[in-house]
Amino acid sequence: MTALLSIRDLTVIYRRDGSEVAALKDISLDIAVGERLAVIGESGSGKSTLALAIARLLPASARIDGSIDWFLRPPPTLGAKAPPSVLPDISPSRGEIALSSPPSPISKVAGEDPTAKLPISLLEGEMSGRTEGGLMERKAQKSTAKPDHTPLGGRDIGFVFQDPSASLDPVMTVGKQIAEVAHTHLGLNWPQAYAKAKTLIERVRLPDPDAALRAFPHQLSGGQKQRVAIAAAIAAGPKLLIADEATSALDTIVQAEIVALIRQLVAEDGMTLLFISHDIALAAALAERIAVFRHGGLVEIGAARQIVSAPRHAYTRSLLDAHLGLDAEPLSRQAGPSA
Amino acid sequence: MSSPLLSVSGLTKRYRRGGKTIAAVDNVSFHIEPGETLALAGPSGSGKSTIARLVLRLVQPDAGDIQFKGEDFLALGGATLRARRARLQMVFQDPLAAFNPRATVARVLDDPLRIHGIASRSERPRRIAALLERVGLSPDLAPRAIHEISGGQRQRVAIARAIATKPSLIVLDEAVSALDVSVRGQILRLLLDLQREERIAYLFISHDLGVVRAIAHRLVILDAGTIAESGDARTVIDAPQSAIGKALVVAAPKLDRTGP
Ligand SMILES: Nc1ncnc2c1ncn2[C@@H]1O[C@H](COP(=O)(O)OP(=O)(O)OP(=O)(O)O)[C@@H](O)[C@H]1O
Ligand SMILES: Nc1ncnc2c1ncn2[C@@H]1O[C@H](COP(=O)(O)OP(=O)(O)O)[C@@H](O)[C@H]1O
Ligand SMILES: [Mg+2]
Ligand SMILES: [Mg+2]
After folding, report:
1. pTM of this structure
2. Residue boundaries of the structural domains of chain B
3. Which atom of ligand 2 is nearest to the CA of A244?
4. A206-233, pLDDT tens digit by residue?
5. What ipTM does this complex have?
6. CB-CB under 8 Å, A252 with B181
């Protein structure tokens, strides 16, 4: 397998009110080009922290150790028209993410310049592609790397969060939000960017694309908003799509539709998928490999089939046992310890 | 047979939105027996929470009738309504939203005991400790703020609060949907224990048929405010007849644990 990125001994410690929380402890794993990898685990196990670390979106207060190496081929046509951008294409929803911090030399970029070292960057909580908030960071990075040719560019990571409302701008039309990503990262002019936005809206199968372009987020259902967030996340053609609990707030029918959509888009565009979920059945249905996290540690990683049918770790087995499928015995008939 | 604990007929609630009127709940009828769990399932927007709010009298219906313990529940007012409300409690999905996050666990449990005059001031700390133990929590948790305990602990506190007034019916709206699977299993077992021991009935709302199958006796499937089908929970889930019932079953994530 060819690695898209390689994580080694990654430790993330959050500091808050004088106390420290180790959210990730010595994590090492590779993500292969084109694979669908799921990360599962209970709340607080460090799933989102991993996603934020990969997207270089951790808050300034976080202490980071270890490395994340990317193996990206240099983009073939990063001409003068394309704006140089070293910022990942993400839509952070967390208010606590700070604007800037001392760069920590963690993220190396292999490829055109295998020795390039990029700091884990921090980006203001903003919509995909709207990177103005990251200007300072961009300057900071220019001094340490070669941003104009840096493969880990604004177009290389698409991020979809659990709450689409948090990642969409409530006062901007859906069309503008998607077009802005294409405008910023693909260097398209506005008419081209809008045309691209319409194509994307069709691709994520929003009903009545022309009306959807002009709609504001609050006029859409939760599932429709998530389709918009996905359209914005893939607008710049990212190599890696990160979906962090992207379907957890949706009802099961819409969840199944969104999962099918993600699967199709990832296949069509040859993207690599990092699918974060607490639902082991959903993860197994979508991903080729599953990584199980607990208390900030990697419990096991393996083929989805193996994790589900022959887990090596008792904790994975307990997650499987706790799944309530449509074929399970009703709890009232199961003998079991009371809560 | 005794008369149902809760009996709802012709329940209708319309909302105006963007110049149009939509029937969030449209001529819905069902009943719940004492000690029984009736599940409401259906896609988002099908009217589940609206029914919960109607049954709890948090909103007024446009039409329909609700009988609770043989009384016309919609006609009750004043002190009688307050007294009956003690018998009809609720637990929602997000326990943080339901409580002031800075309130202590003790305060959250003290409120119903005080408001419904269940225990005197001096007696209440003991009652609070007993309630915490009843839901499997340590009484040491009492002084902690709601935001300082885990999601599963908060949901146990919400259940402790609900049972404080010795209700005969608890409405649970997506009460286990936000919980980790292991914690979810514990909470569902706790609900079953309480039901067995105190004959509490549940109106259990969830879009997750796996959870419904695990806990409910009967199931009503809603679609766009109307009842698509209803019956014994396992019978309906094993062989759904309605289009929406079939769609819900197909969409439920399946886990195939057999090897390759
Ligand atoms: N206060 C309100 N004003 C206007 N429309 C409302 C109001 N409350 C609910 N509705 C509408 O009534 C319908 C039913 O909503 P309800 O909240 O009962 O759905 P639900 O089945 O609980 O959905 P979910 O699974 O998303 O919780 C929806 O179309 C909703 O938009
Ligand atoms: N911004 C933050 N500040 C302090 N602690 C945090 C922050 N974000 C997450 N944590 C803590 O880090 C741990 C891992 O959290 P997270 O990565 O969000 O887990 P998951 O996504 O698996 O639920 C938890 O203990 C959580 O409370
Ligand atoms: Mg998370
Ligand atoms: Mg609801």
Report:
1. 0.84
2. 100-166
3. 21
4. 988 999 999 999 988 888 999 999 999 9
5. 0.86
6. no
